[in-house]
Structure formats: C-alpha cells, structure tokens
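Record 1 of the preview.
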Amino acid sequence: MQLASRYIRRMSKESSCEQFLRGVTALFRKHYKKSMLERFTEHPEDRMTCSAIIFSRLKREIWMIGDCMGLITPLSNYQPSIAPTPQLLENPKPYEGELAAMRAAEAERLLVNGHTIDELCRNDIARPVILPRMLETMREQNVTYSVIDGFPIPRQHIRVIPLDFHPWEIVLASDGYPVLCPTLAESEVALQHQLATDPLNIRTFQATKAFHPDNNSFDDRSYIRFRV
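->
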C-alpha cells in the first residue's frame, strides 16, 4: 500500500492507465531481491500485493485494479426533489463469493453444533476451512484477476470507467464496506448495522472473515467522495 501510494503521489497527471500499470509494477519489482524472483514467480501468494482505485482528472477515467468499489452519480440537470441514482462500481476477485459461501456454511454448521456467535467472532474457526482454497486462488493473481504485485498486470482484468465532461459525484472506496453509500456517514452506519445484526458475516452479507470484538470492522476501509 505504501509503495503504491508513493507512486500515485509522484506520477505525472498525464499518465494513462497503461503507464500507471507499468510504472507501479516496476516500482514493486525494484523492491524484490533478485534471489526472490524465482520463488515469487512460482508462488504468487508470497508477493507484496495491493489493490487501487484511481480517478484521472485529465483522462476523466476511473481505474479499478483489484477488489475495490466506487459510486458515480451524474449531477447534470440535478433537482433536489429528484435525487439521481448512484451507479455502483465493483471489481471483485472471481473466487471471493465462493470462499465466503464456504465459510458461511461451515459457520452455520458450527452454530448448530453448539458454538456461539461470540465464540466464533473471537476465534473464527470456520475460516481455516477456506484457507487451502484461498491459497489456490491467490496463485491465480494477475492471471484470472488483477492486483498490483510487481508482476505484469493483465489489461483485461482492469476496469476503466470513462466519464463525460458533465458534473459527477464520485466515491472511491476499498472493499471493506458491506454496503457502499453516497456518504461516509451512511456507509459507516451500514457497517455498524452489519456488526450488530450479523457479526459473523454469514447471512445478510457474506465475507471470508468475521468481526472480531477488539476491532471496529472486519476489513480495511478507505473512502473518499468528491465532485468533478
């Protein structure tokens, strides 16, 4: 994350998506020792990895690399009495839903067999069931889905959303929100509702991990909203 952030801060505002992909990949690559490259080639799950969602003001494009989310809302001809409907942007990993469903089924089985929700939140013993499959899917990164990891990023797994020159409201976020809303406050309320009603993340929203009582969320989250 720090390497990708550093690159984004310093890259030219005129960069295309392709130039960004090549540049950030080269930066990651420089931080790998040559002796490690053979292992990283054979074991993608060991690489430094992150996702990113970027808005290029000059190109009027949103770039989605990896599992991130966004909302775009047209503001042209905006009328307060008729709020425009935001369009949800997603770029999930292809196996995330399958893994979350596997973990949910195991958690339900554990609950039937006498474990409590609090026990499973503190010690998510349903999660180890999906770890072997999760490692298998990680070996598919930059093959069947995109991430930033120092290896070539296949263009076909990048989402590029072009915007016209009318006014837009844009939300860019990581995938740590079960429901992405037009404001940060609403998104946080939805997150807390999920925590209160389904802390194992197995029913109203399925995830590969639960809320731990010592944390205020189940995953990392970033959120920015702006108008262009």
